[in-house]
Amino acid sequence: MAKYTIYEGKFPCKVCKKEVKTIRLYAETGMATWMCSEKHLSEVKLFHVGYKKKKDYEREERE
Question: For the whole model, what pTM was predicted?
């Protein structure tokens, strides 16, 4: 199983619009998931994993 962190807040179910008070954020994939009392699973991609760093964009000097 992937590691996740639980965050509190107010998140609407995408199917029945019920309010869910916690989400799971998976840092390895950037996905956030939450499940309402009716067992509907909602998922969103919060961020893209593996962005390039500034040094990846720097040009090499030519001689």
Answer: 0.70
